[in-house]
Amino acid sequence: MSLIENLNKSNLPTHVAVIMDGNGRWAKKRGKMRLWGHRNGVEAVRSTIEAAAELQIGYLTLYAFSSENWDRPQEEVMGLMDLLVEAIEKETPKLLKNNIRLQAIGDTERFSEKVKNKLNNCIAETSQCTGLTVVLALSYSGQWDILQAVNSIARLSKQGEIEEVDREVFEQHLSTAGMPSPELMIRTSGEYRLSNFLLWQLAYAELYFTDVNWPDFNKEEFYKALNYYQSRERRFGKTSEQI
Ligand code: IPE
Ligand code: IPE
Ligand code: MG
Predict the structure, then answer these.
(1) What is the average per-residue pLDDT within 206-214?
(2) Pocket of ligand 2 (CB under 6 A)
(3) Is residue 242, in this structure, part of any structural domain at all?
């Protein structure tokens, strides 16, 4: 049976989060500049979005640029920004055609006006789409997210609008408010760490790591991750017998 046929369509995650890693090493292995790796990563983004939409997955969060990535060489940061603008421009009509909504999480205020405008236009244009939601994590870090939630709660608390914070209230202040927590997190390139991705939201996610570098990731690789997910028994602290 093929990987997709093997999938139980009634047990798919509602939200998949991806750390798209390994573009630089992919390019280096081929004797090219890092930016060439990033360029080739765009095709993998396209395939993954398509696969998730076809399977009617609700949310796909893609870690595209971390808070820490600002510290890379200026040339690479600029190249990534240009690539982002270019990809949004090119992909917006396809998103609309396929009923895909774009959202962003992260400290996007740090971006230039040009990047912010492109991003916000695409978010506004696709806001009525009801199919897959693609969430771009941009200038994002899990610690940033938790801190901005704490600060927002502190402000409301000072105004007397919040008395006590429970999990539900806290989650309403995270950048992912209203989204289900990811049940599956995929990281490419053979690194086994979270690199400050959705720290709160991944509390109970299944973690899937593959040695494939991001530009080589495709639908088949995505199906492999989903098959892995379906092979796990999700116990949430209970015993096997209780499941
Ligand atoms: C992931 O690939 C893309 C971004 C972080 C923007 P990398 O650029 O981290 O590639 P490696 O990990 O250096 O190979
Ligand atoms: C994480 O990858 C960030 C993104 C994929 C956007 P990095 O390549 O920046 O993370 P580290 O440096 O390996 O932890
Ligand atoms: Mg990396």
Answers:
(1) 98
(2) 19-21, 63-66, 69, 191, 193, 195
(3) no
